[in-house]
C-alpha cells in the first residue's frame, strides 16, 4: 500500500486543521466561549452542526488516498495498482464491489429491464445481491448509495475551496475600495465591473478548456488518472473563485462606505488609530455577518454551478464522482421509459440535506455572534 | 361632553404591559398633551387609539369612546373610515411619512379621494395654502425631495386635514425640526385648532412645547398616567414627584451655579413587574407604602389629579442640588484653541467627467478662540455647518482653507490626542462588536479602564460587557470615558445630549461640569439647545449658513442679542414660563450651495434694509467680547 497525497486532500485537511485551531483559540477567550455556548443552546443549530459533522467526516475519510499493492507483484519490489482508493472505499467495500449488470430499483430483487433468459424467455433477471441496494443501482450496476457518498467530498471541496479562494480577494478589495475611496476605489470598481460584464459561463468555459488542453498536453505531470482529475477539480475551484468574488466585493464596498462614516469609526480616527487597525477592528467585524451569509449562499450556489458546468461538459473530470455528474446522467435516465428516478432522488436528497444544514447552522451562528441579536 | 373619552386603556405585548389603565378625556377644540420620557408608552397609547398597534401588541382592556362610538368595538373596515377621516395623525419624521416618488399634490389628492366622493383640483391647493405653504399651485406639482423638513411636515398636516378630522394626533410633530421651523409648525397647529375647533392629542417629551401648546397635560411614566392637570396648575405646582423632578432636571441660567437635579436610574424596561408605585425605585420621597401598594388617584384641585401616596409635598418644589464647585479660570495669555478663517467647501460634481460645478460652502470663514478650562458653545440650526467646524478642527475633515492652532502650535492633518470628540448618537458611536474595555482602551492601550469607568460614574465590573447592554446615557458615559483615556485638554462635544431624555441629559451635563472642574477640560460644545448653552457655557458663538453671526459671553448673547437671527432663534425656543415675544422668522434657511448675496440672513430678516442685500456685514465689536455681523447691530 502506498499513500497518495492529492493537492485537494492537503487543502481539505488544512481547512479542518484551521477550524480546529480556531476552535481552540475561541475556547480560551471568555466572550467567544459565551458565543459558542449560545450556539450550543440553539437546538436547530446543534442539529444542523451534527449533520454537517457527519458530512465532513465522510469527506475527511474520503480524502485519505492510497494505491493498494497489486497481489501479483513480486516480493521486495512492490508494484501498485493504478487505481487510487480512499479510506472510504475500504469502509464501503461491500457497496463498492457488489455491482449488478445494470439498472435496478431501490431494494429490488430483480433488474429493472427484461432480458432474454435461457430457460423462460424474456423476464426480469434476479439480482446477484437482491435487496441490498438502498438507492438502487445505475446503468453499469454500481450502487447509487456508494456514488452519493463519494459525491459528498466533491461537493464539500467545491463549496469550501472556492469560497476560500475568493474570500480574501473579495474582503480585501471590498474593504479597501470602501475605506480608501479615491482612485483606489475607481480601480477596484473598474476591475469588478469589467469582470462582471463578461458572461460568467463563457469565461469559465474558456479557462477550463485551456486548462484541459494543458493537462492533455502534459500527461507526464500526473502519475494517475486520480491526480489528473484532482488537478482539474482544483482548477475548477480556482476559476469559479476568480469569477465569483465580484458580488461579495460590491456588497462589502457599499457596507464599508456606510460604516466608515459611523461615529465610532470617526472616534477611532480622532484617537489616532491607524487605518489598517480601523479596518481590522471596526469595519471587518461589522461586515462579518455579510461574509458569513455570502459563504453559505455561495456554498449552495457553487454546488449547483458545478452541476450546470458538468452538463455543458466543462465541469469536473468525467471520472470524478460528483452530484453534478450524477444529476447530469439522471437527465438521460429521466427521459428513458420506464423512468429511472433513484439516482436523481439520491443526489437531490443528499445535496438538499447538506445545503439546508449549512444554512441553518449559519443562521444559528449569526444569531449567537451578533451582539445586537442576543437580547431578542 | 368630551370628544374622546379613554377609559382604563391597557395594551399588552405578551406578558408585558407598555400601557396600563390610562384614562383621559379630550373636548373638541382642546389640546391635550401626553408628556413623558421615551419608553413611557406615549406613542403606544396613540397607536392603540387608532388601532394601529404593531402585530405583537394588542388592546388588553378598556374602552375608547370617540364621538359616541366605541372604537374598540368597530370592525376593521369601519375603523378605516375613522382613521384619516375623523382622526388624523402626524408623525415625528416628515421625511419618511411621504412617498418620495409621488408629487405632494397627488398624495394630498389621494387622501382626499379616500374621504370624499369627488376631488376638486382646487381643494389640494386650498389645503396647501391653509397650512401656510407659499406658492401652493407650484408646490403641489413638486416631489418631497424638493421640499425642506418644515415644508414636508406642513404637507403632512395638509394631508391629514384632507379628511376634515375632528381629532388630530400629533406624535412628536416637531422633534425632527429646527427651533425656528418648530415655532412655525406649532403656530400652524394652534391656528388650525382654533379655526376648525379640532381637538389635538399632542405627544411630546419637551416641556417647552407642551407649555406653549397644551390646555391640559397628562404625564406618563412607565405605561401609566401619573398626573393630569390643566396647564397653569401643572406648571405652577406639579404634583407628582416625577413631574417635579423633570422640571428640576431642566438646565437653565438659574441653575448655572448648581448641579442639576437628576432622577437616578432610567425608565424601567418593558416587562418589569411592579408591585406598588412604578416610580418608587427612582423617587426621592419614597415611603414604605409606595413599594407595596399602587397609589390611588387623588384630586388636589378640580381637574388636577395625581397618582401618588404623598400629599404634603405637593407645593414643595424640588430644590436644585448642591453648588457645583467649579471655579473657572479666566482667559489670559495664549488661547488653548485658536481657529482663524476656517473654510470647508464641498465640491458639487456633475456630469460624466465629474467636474465641480459649484461648492457647498459648509463652513465659510469661521474664527473661534477658546481658553483652557472654559466652555464655548457653538449654536445653530441643522445644516449651518457647526458639526463640520468640529470635524475640521479635529482634522477628521480636511479644511479648504484657514488655520487651527492648539496651544499656539499650528495643526496639520489629524489632531493629536489632546483634542477629542464626543458624538451625538450614543448608539452609533460605540462599535457593537467590542466590549467596553476594548472601546475605552482604543486610543491608549495602557488606560486604566476601571478608573475611567468610575470617573464617568459607571461601575468597574461593566468593563466586560458589550455596549448594546447599556442605555443611551450609559453609552454616552462610555464614549466620554473613551475620550478621557488619552488625557485630552479639549473635548469637542457634538450635541452629546440631544438624543437623550431630559433626566438623563441632566446626568450627562452634571458629569461634564464635574470633569471640567476636576481635570480642567475645555469644551467646544456644539448644540442647538439654548437651555443647555445657558447652563453650561461661558461663551457663545451663533452660526448661520457657514458663518458666525454673533459671538460673546453667555449673558451678552442670550440676554442682549444684537443680531436679528440670534434674536429670532432665542424667541423661537418654547419657554415654560410662557410669554414668548413673537419675533418669528418666515421661510427656511437657504442652501449653503447658493447663499443669498449680501447678508445671508436678509431674505428672512424682518429688519433688512437695502444695504443688507448688497454686502456681507463685517463683525461689529459691541464690547471687548461681544461682536455681531449686522449693519444694525450698533443701533439700538
In short:
The complex is a heterodimer of chains A (376) and B (636). By secondary structure, chain A is mostly helical. In chain A, 68% of the residues lie in helices and 4% in strands.
Break the fold down into its secondary structure elements and pairings.
The complex is a heterodimer of chains A (376) and B (636).
Chain A: E1 2-4, H1 7-28, H2 30-41, H3 43-61, E2 65-67, E3 85-86, H4 87-91, H5 93-97, E4 115-117, E5 121-123, H6 144-180, H7 182-197, H8 200-217, H9 225-260, H10 263-270, H11 275-312, H12 323-335, H13 342-369
Antiparallel strand pairs in A: 1-2, 2-3, 4-5
Chain B: E1 4-13, E2 16-26, E3 31-35, H1 42-49, E4 57-66, E5 69-70, H2 76-82, E6 87-90, H3 94-97, H4 104-115, H5 121-130, H6 136-139, H7 149-161, E7 167-171, H8 179-196, E8 199-204, H9 207-213, E9 216-221, E10 224-230, H10 231-236, H11 241-249, H12 288-292, E11 297-301, E12 304-307, E13 337-350, E14 355-370, E15 375-379, H13 386-394, E16 401-406, E17 409-410, E18 419-422, H14 436-440, H15 449-455, H16 472-484, E19 490-494, H17 502-519, E20 522-527, H18 530-536, E21 539-544, E22 547-553, H19 554-559, H20 564-572, E23 620-621, E24 627-628
Parallel strand pairs in B: 3-8, 3-9, 6-7, 7-8, 15-20, 15-21, 18-19, 19-20
Antiparallel strand pairs in B: 1-2, 1-4, 4-5, 9-10, 10-12, 11-12, 13-14, 13-16, 16-17, 21-22, 22-24, 23-24
Helix pairs in contact in B: 4-5, 4-7, 5-7, 7-8, 8-20, 15-16, 16-17
Amino acid at each position: 500500500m502506498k499513500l497518495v497525497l492529492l493537492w485537494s486532500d492537503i487543502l481539505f485537511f488544512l481547512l479542518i486543521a484551521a477550524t480546529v485551531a480556531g476552535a481552540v483559540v475561541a475556547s480560551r477567550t471568555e466572550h467567544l466561549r459565551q458565543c459558542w455556548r449560545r450556539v450550543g443552546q440553539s437546538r436547530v443549530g446543534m442539529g444542523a452542526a451534527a449533520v454537517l459533522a457527519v458530512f465532513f467526516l465522510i469527506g475527511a475519510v474520503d480524502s485519505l488516498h492510497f494505491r493498494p499493492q497489486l497481489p501479483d507483484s513480486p516480493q521486495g519490489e512492490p508494484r501498485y495498482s493504478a487505481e487510487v482508493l480512499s479510506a472510504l472505499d475500504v469502509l464501503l467495500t461491500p457497496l463498492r464491489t457488489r455491482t449488478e449488470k445494470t439498472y435496478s430499483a431501490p431494494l429490488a430483487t430483480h433488474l429493472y429491464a427484461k432480458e432474454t433468459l435461457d430457460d423462460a424467455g424474456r423476464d426480469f433477471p434476479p439480482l446477484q445481491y437482491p435487496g441490498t441496494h438502498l438507492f438502487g443501482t445505475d446503468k453499469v450496476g454500481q450502487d447509487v448509495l456508494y456514488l452519493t457518498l463519494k459525491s459528498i467530498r466533491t461537493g464539500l471541496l467545491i463549496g469550501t475551496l472556492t469560497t476560500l479562494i475568493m474570500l480574501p480577494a473579495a474582503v480585501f478589495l471590498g474593504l479597501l475600495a470602501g475605506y480608501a475611496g479615491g482612485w483606489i476605489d475607481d480601480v477596484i470598481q473598474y476591475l469588478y465591473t469589467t469582470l462582471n460584464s463578461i458572461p460568467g459561463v463563457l469565461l469559465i468555459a474558456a479557462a477550463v478548456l485551456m486548462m484541459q488542453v494543458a493537462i492533455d498536453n502534459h500527461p507526464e505531470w500526473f502519475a494517475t488518472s486520480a491526480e489528473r482529475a484532482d488537478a482539474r477539480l482544483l482548477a475548477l475551484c480556482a476559476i469559479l473563485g476568480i469569477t465569483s468574488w465580484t458580488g461579495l466585493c460590491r456588497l462589502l464596498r457599499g457596507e464599508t462606505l456606510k460604516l466608515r462614516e459611523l461615529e465610532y469609526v470617526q472616534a477611532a480616527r480622532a484617537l489616532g488609530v491607524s487605518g489598517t487597525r480601523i479596518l481590522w477592528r471596526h469595519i471587518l467585524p461589522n461586515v462579518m455577518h455579510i461574509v458569513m451569509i455570502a459563504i453559505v449562499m455561495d456554498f449552495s450556489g457553487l454546488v449547483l454551478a458545478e452541476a450546470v458546468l458538468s452538463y455543458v461538459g466543462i465541469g469536473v473530470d468525467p471520472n470524478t464522482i460528483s452530484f453534478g455528474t450524477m444529476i447530469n446522467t439522471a437527465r438521460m435516465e429521466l427521459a428513458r421509459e420506464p423512468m429511472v428516478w433513484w439516482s436523481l432522488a439520491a443526489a437531490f436528497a443528499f445535496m438538499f440535506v447538506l445545503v439546508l444544514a449549512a444554512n441553518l447552522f449559519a443562521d444559528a451562528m449569526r444569531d449567537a455572534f451578533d451582539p445586537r441579536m442576543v437580547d431578542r | 361632553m368630551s370628544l374622546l373619552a379613554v377609559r382604563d386603556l391597557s395594551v399588552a405585548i405578551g406578558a408585558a404591559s407598555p400601557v396600563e389603565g390610562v384614562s383621559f378625556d379630550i373636548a373638541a377644540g382642546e389640546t391635550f398633551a401626553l408628556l413623558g420620557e421615551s419608553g413611557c408608552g406615549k406613542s403606544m397609547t396613540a397607536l392603540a387609539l387608532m388601532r394601529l398597534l404593531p402585530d405583537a401588541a394588542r388592546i388588553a382592556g378598556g374602552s375608547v369612546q370617540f364621538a359616541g362610538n366605541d372604537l374598540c368595538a368597530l370592525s376593521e373596515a369601519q375603523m378605516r373610515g375613522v382613521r384619516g377621516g375623523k382622526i388624523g395623525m402626524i408623525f415625528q419624521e416628515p421625511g419618511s411619512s411621504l412617498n418620495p416618488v409621488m408629487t405632494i399634490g397627488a398624495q394630498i389628492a389621494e387622501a382626499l379621494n379616500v374621504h370624499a366622493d369627488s376631488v376638486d383640483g382646487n381643494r389640494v391647493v386650498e389645503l396647501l395654502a391653509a397650512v401656510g405653504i407659499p406658492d401652493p399651485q407650484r408646490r403641489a406639482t413638486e416631489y418631497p425631495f424638493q421640499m425642506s423638513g418644515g415644508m414636508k411636515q406642513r404637507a403632512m398636516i395638509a394631508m391629514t386635514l384632507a379628511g376634515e378630522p375632528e381629532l388630530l394626533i400629533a406624535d412628536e410633530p416637531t422633534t425632527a425640526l429646527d427651533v425656528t421651523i418648530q415655532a412655525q409648525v406649532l403656530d400652524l397647529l394652534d391656528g388650525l385648532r382654533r379655526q376648525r375647533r379640532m381637538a389635538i392629542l399632542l405627544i411630546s417629551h419637551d416641556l417647552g412645547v407642551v407649555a406653549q401648546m397644551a390646555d391640559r397635560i397628562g404625564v406618563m411614566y412607565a405605561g401609566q398616567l401619573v398626573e393630569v392637570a390643566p396647564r397653569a396648575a401643572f406648571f405652577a405646582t406639579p404634583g407628582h414627584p416625577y413631574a417635579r423632578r423633570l422640571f428640576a432636571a431642566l438646565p437653565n441660567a438659574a441653575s448655572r451655579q448648581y448641579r442639576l437635579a437628576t432622577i437616578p436610574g432610567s425608565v424601567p424596561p418593558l416587562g418589569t413587574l411592579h408591585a406598588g408605585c412604578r416610580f418608587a425605585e427612582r423617587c426621592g420621597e419614597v415611603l414604605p407604602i409606595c413599594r407595596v401598594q399602587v397609589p390611588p388617584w387623588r384630586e388636589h384641585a378640580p381637574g388636577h389629579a395625581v397618582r401618588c401616596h404623598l400629599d404634603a409635598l405637593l407645593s414643595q418644589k424640588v430644590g436644585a442640588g448642591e453648588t457645583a464647585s467649579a471655579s473657572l479660570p479666566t482667559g489670559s495669555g495664549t488661547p488653548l484653541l485658536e481657529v482663524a478663517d476656517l473654510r470647508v467647501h464641498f465640491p458639487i460634481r456633475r456630469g460624466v467627467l465629474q467636474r465641480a460645478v459649484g461648492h457647498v460652502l459648509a463652513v465659510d470663514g469661521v474664527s473661534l478662540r477658546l481658553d483652557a478650562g472654559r466652555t464655548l458653545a457653538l449654536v445653530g440650526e441643522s445644516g449651518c455647518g457647526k458639526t463640520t467646524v468640529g470635524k475640521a478642527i479635529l482634522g477628521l475633515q480636511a479644511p479648504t482653507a484657514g488655520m487651527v492652532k492648539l496651544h499656539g502650535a499650528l495643526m496639520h492633518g489629524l489632531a493629536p490626542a489632546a483634542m477629542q470628540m464626543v458624538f451625538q448618537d450614543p448608539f452609533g458611536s460605540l462599535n457593537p462588536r467590542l466590549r467596553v474595555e476594548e472601546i475605552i482602551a482604543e486610543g491608549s492601550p495602557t488606560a486604566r479602564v476601571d478608573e475611567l469607568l468610575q470617573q464617568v460614574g459607571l461601575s468597574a465590573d461593566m468593563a466586560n460587557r458589550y455596549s448594546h447592554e447599556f442605555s443611551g446615557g450609559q453609552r454616552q458615559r462610555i464614549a466620554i470615558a473613551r475620550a478621557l483615556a488619552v488625557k485630552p485638554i479639549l473635548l469637542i462635544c457634538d450635541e452629546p445630549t440631544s438624543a437623550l431624555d431630559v433626566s438623563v441629559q441632566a446626568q450627562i451635563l452634571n458629569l461634564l461640569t464635574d470633569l471640567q472642574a476636576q481635570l480642567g477640560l475645555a469644551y467646544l460644545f456644539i448644540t442647538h439647545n439654548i437651555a443647555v448653552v445657558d447652563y453650561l457655557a461661558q461663551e457663545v458663538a451663533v452660526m448661520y449658513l457657514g458663518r458666525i453671526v454673533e459671538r460673546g459671553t453667555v449673558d451678552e448673547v442670550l440676554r442682549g442679542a444684537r443680531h436679528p437671527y440670534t434674536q429670532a432663534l432665542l424667541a423661537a425656543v418654547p419657554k415654560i414660563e410662557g410669554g414668548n415675544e413673537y419675533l418669528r422668522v418666515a421661510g427656511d434657511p437657504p442652501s449653503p450651495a447658493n447663499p443669498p448675496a449680501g447678508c445671508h440672513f436678509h431674505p428672512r430678516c424682518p429688519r433688512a434694509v437695502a444695504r443688507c442685500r448688497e454686502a456681507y456685514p463685517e463683525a461689529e465689536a459691541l464690547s471687548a467680547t461681544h461682536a455681531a455681523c449686522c449693519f444694525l447691530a450698533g443701533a439700538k
